[in-house]
Amino acid sequence: MRRLLTVMVALLLALTGCSATSGSDAGAEPSGGYVGHERAAGEDGTATDDAAAGEESTADLDEGGLGGEASGDGESARQVITTGYVSMTVEDPRQAARESARLVEHVGGWVEQRSETSADGDLDASALLVVRIPATEVTTTLERLEELGEVQQISQSSDDVTAQSQDLDARIRALRTSISRLEALLERSGSVEEIVEAEQVLTDRQSQLESLESQRSRLSEQVAMSTFELDLWSTPPSAIEARGGFLGGLSTGWDSLVSTLAGLSLALGVLLPWLILLGLVALVAVAVRRRLGRRQTATAPSAAPSSPPEEPSSTQP
């Protein structure tokens, strides 16, 4: 009996590994040799019940909706991830951002990211939102958003991930069937070594299943909730166009002159208090120096005039 269980575990490792990696055929059942081995292993009919339980779990998975909504002909519906970008001109970007958020939340979505900028000098007011909209409400929501202002740009893209979804579904089905059969083997436990080996394989299969289910869940969430970026402006970015010709150059030069003078005025305003302070310090230093010079001149002794040197007398030969 121990040898038989050892052989069963070894064959189960090889066959379930092939079944998990070949899961790209969506809806495919485990190979006949695998099921036949399970049936031969149990003379009392329990293996047949385990195989049936595995088939029932596969059917439950199909009904659970991991493969998307079923169409009329029994095939999985297309899985599409939709993303988009909308740029609009509105009177008040902050107010429009609040209305956009309420509109998205009303249809079952949410705001994932939001930033607002108030008008400051030449900088116009703007708001940026990243929203998640139910895929079934994208068209209706975009039509309502267009009523908030004037649309400057709109773009939308779709990524078909049906094949990826079906591959994940098939691999999940294969792993669930494998786990079900491993649990059945543990119930007919043999030696301690066989139990430990089977539990290690079961733990590995469960870890793989959790990873695949997590990937499938994220994919389903991206399919169900479309991502859109809303860019709201009080003045469209394209409103200020480049001007050419003599007048355009003159206007550009004048703007540059005004900006330069404004910068110089700002620098002068910053430096003026320091210049005044340095000037006062310089005046005090000059006054002190002059006063000290006068005192030194008044107290210095008068020097006696020096007699001119005598000329050497010339001797005649």
UniProtKB/TrEMBL annotation:
Start and end residues of each DUF4349 domain: 78-284
Tagged with keyword 4Fe-4S: no
Keyword presence, S-adenosyl-L-methionine: no
Lineage top rank: taxon: Bacteria
Segments forming a coiled coil: 195-222
Entry's transmembrane regions: 266-288
Name of this protein: DUF4349 domain-containing protein
Organism field: Actinotalea soli
